[in-house]
Amino acid sequence: MVTSTPESIKSVKDLYAALGKEVSSAKQNKTYKYEVPIEGEQNGVVTVGGKSAVMLASNNYLGLANHPRIKEAAKSGLERWGFGMASVRFLCGTQPIHTQLEQKIAEFFGCEDAILHSSCFAANEAFFTALLSHGLGQQDYKDVIYSDQLNHASIIDGVRLCRIVAKSTDSRPYPHNQIATLKQWLEEDDGKGYRIKVIATDGVFSMEGDLAPLKELVDLASKHNALLFVDESHATGAVGETGRGTPEALGVQGKVDVISGTLGKALGGAAGGFITGKQELIEFLRQKSRPYTFSNTVPPPIVCAALEAFKMLEEDNSLVLKLNENTQYFRKEIKRLGFTILEGVHPIVPVMLGEAAIAMDMSRDLLEHGVYVKGLWYPVVPQGEARLRAQISAAHSINDLDLCLTAFEKVGKKLGVIS
Q: How far apart are CA 133 and CA 157, in angstroms?
Protein backbone atom coordinates (compact mmCIF):
# COMPACT_ATOMS: atom_id res chain seq x y z
CA MET A 1 0.00 0.00 0.00
CA VAL A 2 1.27 3.46 -0.87
CA THR A 3 1.67 5.26 2.44
CA SER A 4 3.30 8.62 1.78
CA THR A 5 3.32 11.48 -0.70
CA PRO A 6 6.48 11.75 -2.84
CA GLU A 7 8.81 14.68 -2.12
CA SER A 8 10.87 17.00 -4.35
CA ILE A 9 8.14 17.43 -6.95
CA LYS A 10 8.85 20.37 -9.28
CA SER A 11 6.70 19.43 -12.26
CA VAL A 12 3.84 17.18 -13.30
CA LYS A 13 6.42 14.85 -14.88
CA ASP A 14 8.22 14.65 -11.53
CA LEU A 15 4.92 13.87 -9.86
CA TYR A 16 4.23 10.84 -12.02
CA ALA A 17 7.81 9.61 -11.68
CA ALA A 18 7.68 9.90 -7.91
CA LEU A 19 4.30 8.17 -7.71
CA GLY A 20 5.62 5.30 -9.83
CA LYS A 21 8.66 4.97 -7.58
CA GLU A 22 6.46 4.91 -4.49
CA VAL A 23 4.25 2.18 -5.94
CA SER A 24 7.30 0.13 -7.00
CA SER A 25 8.69 0.38 -3.47
CA ALA A 26 5.38 -0.77 -2.00
CA LYS A 27 5.32 -3.78 -4.32
CA GLN A 28 8.92 -4.67 -3.49
CA ASN A 29 8.25 -4.45 0.25
CA LYS A 30 5.05 -6.46 -0.09
CA THR A 31 2.85 -3.65 1.21
CA TYR A 32 0.96 -3.11 -2.04
CA LYS A 33 -2.70 -4.14 -2.16
CA TYR A 34 -3.65 -6.04 -5.30
CA GLU A 35 -7.22 -6.40 -6.50
CA VAL A 36 -8.19 -9.93 -7.44
CA PRO A 37 -11.29 -9.94 -9.71
CA ILE A 38 -14.22 -12.22 -8.92
CA GLU A 39 -15.57 -13.80 -12.08
CA GLY A 40 -19.24 -13.96 -11.24
CA GLU A 41 -21.57 -13.34 -8.31
CA GLN A 42 -20.53 -12.57 -4.75
CA ASN A 43 -21.39 -15.60 -2.63
CA GLY A 44 -20.07 -18.04 -0.05
CA VAL A 45 -18.07 -19.66 -2.86
CA VAL A 46 -16.86 -17.56 -5.80
CA THR A 47 -14.91 -18.03 -9.02
CA VAL A 48 -11.41 -16.56 -9.30
CA GLY A 49 -9.09 -17.27 -12.21
CA GLY A 50 -11.49 -19.93 -13.45
CA LYS A 51 -11.35 -21.82 -10.14
CA SER A 52 -13.72 -21.90 -7.19
CA ALA A 53 -12.68 -20.37 -3.89
CA VAL A 54 -14.44 -20.01 -0.55
CA MET A 55 -15.02 -16.31 0.06
CA LEU A 56 -13.63 -15.14 3.42
CA ALA A 57 -13.15 -11.47 2.55
CA SER A 58 -16.68 -10.22 2.02
CA ASN A 59 -19.07 -8.24 4.23
CA ASN A 60 -21.84 -10.47 2.89
CA TYR A 61 -22.65 -11.67 6.40
CA LEU A 62 -26.15 -13.03 5.77
CA GLY A 63 -25.49 -14.27 2.25
CA LEU A 64 -27.98 -11.77 0.80
CA ALA A 65 -25.70 -10.21 -1.84
CA ASN A 66 -27.22 -12.43 -4.51
CA HIS A 67 -30.01 -14.18 -2.63
CA PRO A 68 -32.91 -15.08 -4.99
CA ARG A 69 -35.39 -12.93 -3.04
CA ILE A 70 -33.04 -9.93 -3.11
CA LYS A 71 -32.38 -10.31 -6.83
CA GLU A 72 -36.09 -10.60 -7.56
CA ALA A 73 -36.84 -7.51 -5.46
CA ALA A 74 -34.15 -5.54 -7.29
CA LYS A 75 -35.48 -6.75 -10.64
CA SER A 76 -39.04 -5.76 -9.72
CA GLY A 77 -37.78 -2.39 -8.50
CA LEU A 78 -36.01 -1.83 -11.81
CA GLU A 79 -39.12 -2.69 -13.82
CA ARG A 80 -41.56 -0.71 -11.65
CA TRP A 81 -39.48 2.32 -10.61
CA GLY A 82 -36.64 2.50 -13.13
CA PHE A 83 -32.85 2.35 -13.00
CA GLY A 84 -32.11 5.73 -11.43
CA MET A 85 -33.60 9.12 -10.67
CA ALA A 86 -30.88 11.33 -12.24
CA SER A 87 -31.54 13.78 -9.43
CA VAL A 88 -31.04 14.59 -5.79
CA ARG A 89 -33.86 14.02 -3.34
CA PHE A 90 -35.17 17.57 -2.93
CA LEU A 91 -35.47 18.26 -6.68
CA CYS A 92 -37.20 15.29 -8.30
CA GLY A 93 -35.40 12.33 -6.77
CA THR A 94 -37.91 11.05 -4.22
CA GLN A 95 -40.28 8.14 -4.83
CA PRO A 96 -42.65 6.52 -2.31
CA ILE A 97 -40.18 3.64 -1.93
CA HIS A 98 -37.51 6.01 -0.59
CA THR A 99 -39.71 7.24 2.22
CA GLN A 100 -40.91 3.67 2.83
CA LEU A 101 -37.33 2.51 3.30
CA GLU A 102 -36.55 5.40 5.65
CA GLN A 103 -39.63 4.54 7.72
CA LYS A 104 -38.64 0.87 7.77
CA ILE A 105 -35.10 1.68 8.94
CA ALA A 106 -36.39 3.86 11.77
CA GLU A 107 -38.90 1.19 12.80
CA PHE A 108 -36.28 -1.57 12.67
CA PHE A 109 -33.96 0.28 15.04
CA GLY A 110 -36.70 1.66 17.29
CA CYS A 111 -36.10 5.28 16.24
CA GLU A 112 -38.40 8.08 15.12
CA ASP A 113 -37.09 8.83 11.62
CA ALA A 114 -34.28 8.06 9.18
CA ILE A 115 -32.49 9.64 6.23
CA LEU A 116 -30.89 7.82 3.29
CA HIS A 117 -27.44 8.62 1.89
CA SER A 118 -25.41 7.25 -1.01
CA SER A 119 -23.17 5.41 1.48
CA CYS A 120 -22.51 5.24 5.21
CA PHE A 121 -19.23 7.06 4.54
CA ALA A 122 -21.27 9.98 3.21
CA ALA A 123 -23.78 9.66 6.07
CA ASN A 124 -21.06 9.87 8.73
CA GLU A 125 -19.43 12.90 7.13
CA ALA A 126 -22.87 14.49 6.79
CA PHE A 127 -23.76 14.06 10.45
CA PHE A 128 -20.71 15.74 11.94
CA THR A 129 -20.37 18.58 9.46
CA ALA A 130 -24.07 19.43 9.42
CA LEU A 131 -24.62 19.34 13.17
CA LEU A 132 -21.39 20.86 14.42
CA SER A 133 -20.75 23.51 11.77
CA HIS A 134 -24.11 25.21 12.28
CA GLY A 135 -24.58 27.99 14.80
CA LEU A 136 -28.11 26.99 15.82
CA GLY A 137 -28.76 30.62 16.77
CA GLN A 138 -25.46 31.05 18.62
CA GLN A 139 -22.55 33.18 17.43
CA ASP A 140 -19.96 32.12 20.00
CA TYR A 141 -19.87 28.43 20.85
CA LYS A 142 -17.57 25.45 21.31
CA ASP A 143 -18.40 21.81 20.57
CA VAL A 144 -16.43 18.65 21.33
CA ILE A 145 -16.28 15.15 19.83
CA TYR A 146 -14.99 12.17 21.82
CA SER A 147 -14.10 9.53 19.22
CA ASP A 148 -12.69 6.03 19.73
CA GLN A 149 -9.22 5.88 18.19
CA LEU A 150 -10.10 2.75 16.20
CA ASN A 151 -13.25 4.20 14.65
CA HIS A 152 -13.86 3.74 10.93
CA ALA A 153 -12.17 6.14 8.51
CA SER A 154 -15.53 7.73 7.70
CA ILE A 155 -15.95 8.91 11.29
CA ILE A 156 -12.34 10.10 11.42
CA ASP A 157 -12.78 12.02 8.16
CA GLY A 158 -16.12 13.39 9.31
CA VAL A 159 -14.49 14.76 12.45
CA ARG A 160 -11.58 16.22 10.46
CA LEU A 161 -13.88 17.87 7.95
CA CYS A 162 -16.04 19.21 10.73
CA ARG A 163 -13.02 20.81 12.39
CA ILE A 164 -12.00 22.44 9.10
CA VAL A 165 -15.47 23.83 8.49
CA ALA A 166 -16.16 24.64 12.14
CA LYS A 167 -12.97 25.70 13.89
CA SER A 168 -15.02 25.88 17.08
CA THR A 169 -15.05 22.06 17.36
CA ASP A 170 -12.57 20.25 19.63
CA SER A 171 -11.60 16.63 18.93
CA ARG A 172 -10.67 14.25 21.74
CA PRO A 173 -9.84 10.74 20.40
CA TYR A 174 -9.85 8.33 23.36
CA PRO A 175 -7.92 5.02 23.54
CA HIS A 176 -9.86 2.10 22.10
CA ASN A 177 -12.78 1.12 24.35
CA GLN A 178 -11.11 2.78 27.35
CA ILE A 179 -14.17 3.84 29.33
CA ALA A 180 -12.13 5.05 32.32
CA THR A 181 -10.25 7.59 30.20
CA LEU A 182 -13.44 8.78 28.50
CA LYS A 183 -15.17 9.13 31.86
CA GLN A 184 -12.29 11.21 33.19
CA TRP A 185 -12.32 13.51 30.15
CA LEU A 186 -16.09 14.01 30.31
CA GLU A 187 -15.86 14.92 33.99
CA GLU A 188 -13.05 17.38 33.28
CA ASP A 189 -15.02 18.99 30.46
CA ASP A 190 -18.35 19.34 32.25
CA GLY A 191 -17.55 22.87 33.33
CA LYS A 192 -16.06 24.13 30.07
CA GLY A 193 -19.32 25.34 28.58
CA TYR A 194 -19.41 23.13 25.49
CA ARG A 195 -22.58 23.64 23.45
CA ILE A 196 -22.77 20.13 21.98
CA LYS A 197 -20.85 17.05 23.16
CA VAL A 198 -20.78 13.92 20.97
CA ILE A 199 -19.44 10.49 21.86
CA ALA A 200 -18.75 8.68 18.58
CA THR A 201 -17.98 4.98 18.24
CA ASP A 202 -18.27 2.03 15.92
CA GLY A 203 -20.71 -0.57 17.19
CA VAL A 204 -18.42 -3.27 15.80
CA PHE A 205 -14.84 -2.31 14.96
CA SER A 206 -14.09 -3.42 11.43
CA MET A 207 -10.46 -4.46 11.89
CA GLU A 208 -10.84 -6.11 15.31
CA GLY A 209 -14.35 -7.56 15.26
CA ASP A 210 -14.93 -6.45 18.87
CA LEU A 211 -17.96 -4.60 20.18
CA ALA A 212 -18.11 -1.16 21.76
CA PRO A 213 -19.13 -1.13 25.46
CA LEU A 214 -22.46 0.47 24.66
CA LYS A 215 -24.06 0.09 28.09
CA GLU A 216 -21.29 2.10 29.70
CA LEU A 217 -21.34 4.63 26.84
CA VAL A 218 -25.10 5.08 27.16
CA ASP A 219 -24.69 5.76 30.89
CA LEU A 220 -21.86 8.25 30.33
CA ALA A 221 -23.74 10.08 27.58
CA SER A 222 -26.79 10.43 29.79
CA LYS A 223 -24.82 11.59 32.83
CA HIS A 224 -22.76 14.17 30.93
CA ASN A 225 -25.47 15.43 28.56
CA ALA A 226 -23.76 14.13 25.41
CA LEU A 227 -25.14 12.66 22.19
CA LEU A 228 -24.13 9.04 21.62
CA PHE A 229 -23.41 8.31 17.93
CA VAL A 230 -22.90 4.66 16.90
CA ASP A 231 -21.91 3.39 13.44
CA GLU A 232 -23.62 0.00 13.02
CA SER A 233 -22.26 -0.85 9.56
CA HIS A 234 -20.67 -4.15 10.62
CA ALA A 235 -23.37 -4.90 13.20
CA THR A 236 -26.68 -4.55 11.36
CA GLY A 237 -27.83 -8.04 10.43
CA ALA A 238 -24.75 -9.66 11.99
CA VAL A 239 -25.16 -8.91 15.71
CA GLY A 240 -28.09 -9.33 18.07
CA GLU A 241 -30.68 -12.07 18.22
CA THR A 242 -32.70 -10.55 15.37
CA GLY A 243 -29.87 -8.67 13.63
CA ARG A 244 -30.65 -5.30 15.17
CA GLY A 245 -27.03 -4.75 16.04
CA THR A 246 -24.96 -3.97 19.11
CA PRO A 247 -27.74 -2.10 20.98
CA GLU A 248 -29.86 -5.26 20.82
CA ALA A 249 -26.95 -7.54 21.69
CA LEU A 250 -25.90 -5.41 24.69
CA GLY A 251 -29.35 -4.60 26.03
CA VAL A 252 -29.56 -0.89 25.21
CA GLN A 253 -31.88 -0.90 22.20
CA GLY A 254 -33.72 2.42 21.95
CA LYS A 255 -31.17 4.18 24.17
CA VAL A 256 -28.64 5.23 21.49
CA ASP A 257 -29.23 8.78 20.27
CA VAL A 258 -27.95 8.45 16.69
CA ILE A 259 -27.32 5.30 14.63
CA SER A 260 -25.67 5.27 11.23
CA GLY A 261 -25.34 2.23 9.03
CA THR A 262 -25.05 0.79 5.57
CA LEU A 263 -27.18 -1.13 3.10
CA GLY A 264 -23.95 -2.34 1.50
CA LYS A 265 -22.91 -5.13 3.84
CA ALA A 266 -25.28 -7.65 5.48
CA LEU A 267 -28.37 -6.09 3.87
CA GLY A 268 -27.56 -7.10 0.32
CA GLY A 269 -24.13 -5.63 -0.22
CA ALA A 270 -24.90 -3.09 -2.96
CA ALA A 271 -24.78 0.55 -1.83
CA GLY A 272 -26.51 3.13 0.32
CA GLY A 273 -26.25 4.33 3.90
CA PHE A 274 -28.49 5.90 6.52
CA ILE A 275 -28.77 7.81 9.75
CA THR A 276 -31.63 7.16 12.17
CA GLY A 277 -32.61 8.94 15.36
CA LYS A 278 -34.93 11.66 16.67
CA GLN A 279 -37.24 13.28 14.14
CA GLU A 280 -35.91 16.79 14.83
CA LEU A 281 -32.36 15.67 14.05
CA ILE A 282 -33.33 13.89 10.84
CA GLU A 283 -35.37 16.84 9.57
CA PHE A 284 -32.45 19.14 10.36
CA LEU A 285 -30.09 16.87 8.38
CA ARG A 286 -32.43 16.96 5.37
CA GLN A 287 -31.92 20.72 5.29
CA LYS A 288 -28.25 20.99 6.25
CA SER A 289 -26.55 17.76 5.09
CA ARG A 290 -24.51 18.60 2.00
CA PRO A 291 -23.84 14.94 0.98
CA TYR A 292 -27.62 14.43 1.08
CA THR A 293 -28.50 17.66 -0.70
CA PHE A 294 -25.92 17.34 -3.47
CA SER A 295 -25.73 13.56 -4.09
CA ASN A 296 -28.00 11.53 -6.32
CA THR A 297 -30.81 9.50 -4.84
CA VAL A 298 -30.17 5.85 -3.93
CA PRO A 299 -31.24 3.90 -7.07
CA PRO A 300 -34.70 2.26 -6.97
CA PRO A 301 -33.45 -1.34 -7.44
CA ILE A 302 -31.24 -0.96 -4.37
CA VAL A 303 -34.08 0.58 -2.36
CA CYS A 304 -36.44 -2.27 -3.22
CA ALA A 305 -33.79 -4.89 -2.45
CA ALA A 306 -33.08 -3.24 0.93
CA LEU A 307 -36.79 -3.27 1.78
CA GLU A 308 -36.85 -6.99 1.01
CA ALA A 309 -33.76 -7.58 3.19
CA PHE A 310 -35.43 -5.90 6.17
CA LYS A 311 -38.57 -7.94 5.49
CA MET A 312 -36.52 -11.15 5.57
CA LEU A 313 -34.93 -10.19 8.89
CA GLU A 314 -38.33 -9.41 10.39
CA GLU A 315 -39.86 -12.69 9.20
CA ASP A 316 -37.38 -14.86 11.10
CA ASN A 317 -33.81 -14.88 12.41
CA SER A 318 -32.69 -18.14 10.79
CA LEU A 319 -29.93 -16.46 8.78
CA VAL A 320 -28.64 -14.68 11.88
CA LEU A 321 -28.59 -17.98 13.77
CA LYS A 322 -26.78 -19.71 10.90
CA LEU A 323 -24.21 -16.92 10.84
CA ASN A 324 -23.62 -17.25 14.58
CA GLU A 325 -23.23 -21.03 14.33
CA ASN A 326 -20.73 -20.73 11.49
CA THR A 327 -18.79 -18.05 13.35
CA GLN A 328 -18.52 -20.07 16.55
CA TYR A 329 -17.37 -23.12 14.61
CA PHE A 330 -14.68 -21.28 12.65
CA ARG A 331 -13.37 -19.40 15.70
CA LYS A 332 -13.09 -22.62 17.70
CA GLU A 333 -11.38 -24.61 14.95
CA ILE A 334 -8.92 -21.94 13.77
CA LYS A 335 -7.67 -21.62 17.36
CA ARG A 336 -7.41 -25.39 17.65
CA LEU A 337 -5.00 -25.35 14.69
CA GLY A 338 -2.72 -23.02 16.66
CA PHE A 339 -3.49 -19.65 15.08
CA THR A 340 -3.77 -16.53 17.20
CA ILE A 341 -7.00 -14.62 16.72
CA LEU A 342 -8.59 -11.63 18.38
CA GLU A 343 -11.24 -13.02 20.70
CA GLY A 344 -14.88 -12.13 20.21
CA VAL A 345 -18.23 -13.29 18.88
CA HIS A 346 -18.44 -11.36 15.62
CA PRO A 347 -18.01 -13.00 12.16
CA ILE A 348 -14.95 -10.78 11.63
CA VAL A 349 -12.15 -13.10 12.73
CA PRO A 350 -8.71 -11.41 12.65
CA VAL A 351 -5.95 -14.03 12.27
CA MET A 352 -2.89 -12.27 13.67
CA LEU A 353 0.39 -12.64 11.74
CA GLY A 354 2.51 -9.60 12.66
CA GLU A 355 4.32 -8.71 9.44
CA ALA A 356 2.84 -7.40 6.21
CA ALA A 357 4.95 -9.70 4.04
CA ILE A 358 3.64 -12.78 5.85
CA ALA A 359 0.06 -11.58 5.50
CA MET A 360 0.52 -11.01 1.76
CA ASP A 361 2.24 -14.37 1.20
CA MET A 362 -0.36 -16.25 3.19
CA SER A 363 -3.23 -14.55 1.36
CA ARG A 364 -1.64 -15.47 -2.00
CA ASP A 365 -1.00 -19.09 -1.00
CA LEU A 366 -4.45 -19.56 0.48
CA LEU A 367 -6.01 -18.45 -2.80
CA GLU A 368 -4.04 -21.20 -4.54
CA HIS A 369 -5.69 -23.62 -2.08
CA GLY A 370 -9.18 -22.30 -2.82
CA VAL A 371 -9.60 -19.69 -0.06
CA TYR A 372 -10.11 -16.00 -0.85
CA VAL A 373 -9.00 -13.93 2.15
CA LYS A 374 -7.11 -10.63 2.22
CA GLY A 375 -4.29 -9.35 4.39
CA LEU A 376 -4.37 -6.07 6.28
CA TRP A 377 -1.31 -4.14 7.44
CA TYR A 378 -0.11 -0.67 8.39
CA PRO A 379 -1.53 1.95 8.04
CA VAL A 380 -4.89 0.12 7.96
CA VAL A 381 -3.93 -1.56 11.25
CA PRO A 382 -1.17 -0.63 13.74
CA GLN A 383 2.48 -1.31 12.86
CA GLY A 384 3.43 -4.90 13.59
CA GLU A 385 -0.17 -6.11 13.79
CA ALA A 386 -0.66 -7.36 10.23
CA ARG A 387 -3.40 -9.92 9.92
CA LEU A 388 -5.76 -11.84 7.71
CA ARG A 389 -9.32 -10.66 8.28
CA ALA A 390 -11.49 -13.72 7.81
CA GLN A 391 -15.19 -12.91 7.51
CA ILE A 392 -17.75 -15.64 8.01
CA SER A 393 -21.12 -15.75 6.24
CA ALA A 394 -24.43 -17.52 6.61
CA ALA A 395 -23.83 -18.54 2.98
CA HIS A 396 -21.01 -20.85 4.08
CA SER A 397 -21.60 -24.53 4.69
CA ILE A 398 -19.58 -26.44 7.26
CA ASN A 399 -17.83 -28.16 4.34
CA ASP A 400 -16.80 -24.72 3.03
CA LEU A 401 -15.35 -23.80 6.42
CA ASP A 402 -13.57 -27.16 6.74
CA LEU A 403 -11.94 -26.57 3.34
CA CYS A 404 -10.74 -23.20 4.64
CA LEU A 405 -9.38 -24.69 7.84
CA THR A 406 -7.49 -27.38 5.95
CA ALA A 407 -5.94 -24.72 3.71
CA PHE A 408 -5.03 -22.53 6.70
CA GLU A 409 -3.27 -25.47 8.31
CA LYS A 410 -1.25 -26.33 5.19
CA VAL A 411 -0.23 -22.76 4.39
CA GLY A 412 0.34 -21.87 8.03
CA LYS A 413 2.80 -24.73 8.45
CA LYS A 414 4.51 -23.95 5.14
CA LEU A 415 5.15 -20.34 6.18
CA GLY A 416 6.06 -21.22 9.77
CA VAL A 417 3.09 -19.42 11.27
CA ILE A 418 2.00 -22.60 13.13
CA SER A 419 3.97 -25.73 13.92
A: 14
